[in-house]
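I hope you will forgive my troubling you with a question about protein structure. The matter concerns a single protein, recorded as an amino acid sequence and a row of backbone structure tokens. Please examine both parts with care and let me know of anything in them that strikes you as inconsistent. Thank you for your consideration; the sequence and its tokens are set out here:
***
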Amino acid sequence: MSNAEVRAPLSRCWCLRGTLLEAAADAIHDVMGRHPCRLIDEEETVHVPTVHQAQRQPCTRWLRDCAVPATLYALLMAARANRALITGITGQDGSYLAEFLLEKGYEVYGLIRRSSTEPFERIQHIQHQLRLISGDLLDERSLIQALAEAQPSEVYNLAAQSFVQTSWDQSVFTGEVTALGVTRLLNAIRTVDPTVRFYQASSSEMFGNIPVSPQNEETPFYPRSPYGVAKVYGHWITVNYRESYGLYTVSGILFNHESPRRGFEFVTRKIANGVAQIKYGVANELCLGTLDAKRDWGFAGDYVRAMWLMLQQPQPRHYVIGTGEIHSVREFAERAFREAGLDWKDHVKVDPRLFRPAEIHQLVADPRRARTELGWQPTMSFPDLVSLMVRAELERLEDQLAVRDARNARHAQPVTVPQKRAVSR
């Protein structure tokens, strides 16, 4: 029997691809000289699910006619172990998580909506290493198809309508995506492969105006926005599917985490960008809402490491992730302007129109469980985070202005019009 004949049945197995498939088929053929799927007399066998089976009969996850030796099953599981699917991969957290998993040797899939207008700039530098597939948290069938195609061992649900202010203007949409989208994804996992490990991005906004401080895993929730309410639903449905269906599901209750990749609508990026614009004379003032709100701010690159660690534990449970330090918007602004050699008092204006309908004044994490059980702790201090964001904005704006000036210089060059030659009569 040729190697090609040996490989054909195994190529249907969802967890064997590429060079690993060739190596496995060659090894079985060379050592045993027999068809891999007929080695059922020598030792205990197991059944392996396939993409085709999941697509044809979603509720039937085991391929009965493709039994393989238990020793080979370990190889099959190893091939599957390092494959992850990330929703929200084009966002701040998704891009950092994709980088982190790629460095660990993962095969990374990203879920992208067909109608998405989300820019890919955050993952542009690694896009050639990613596999982007179509799917939408509003469409459960598309999620089933995406899971059947990717066949991940880990799913990280980072997609959401995540801006608090927008959640007031688009409350129904926020609920559909940020809350019910979690249910659709969990149902898809149950349908395709219940052994998948699932991470849900929960938020400190779930605590809202709770008087207890700092907040830990046992602190009650008191959300103060449609976004916070939707996140509470996503958190509890994750817990319920774990307890009711035996799925490996965890929630990471992440406090504010920032980076140069943060969206411009968030106050930290807004401040850093405003500092750069004022420094280079593009603007003269920066309008902010309340300066008294206090948050626990950390670096996003640290927090994606915590996400991964949660899915590596023997038993699933939720964790609070934060620095345990608290700083005000006023302090962030003061440090940011100082980084550029400016005095924030000369440029910051408070605009009451930017106040939230229901403001949260103080959130700070108690991350002791994560530090004890996960061995996780942040690596970047608050001053270093502010400096990183401001310097990134200064460099970005400097580059933009250089491009603009070069373009203007080209357009300003005098155009030499050739004189008409005299025509002899």
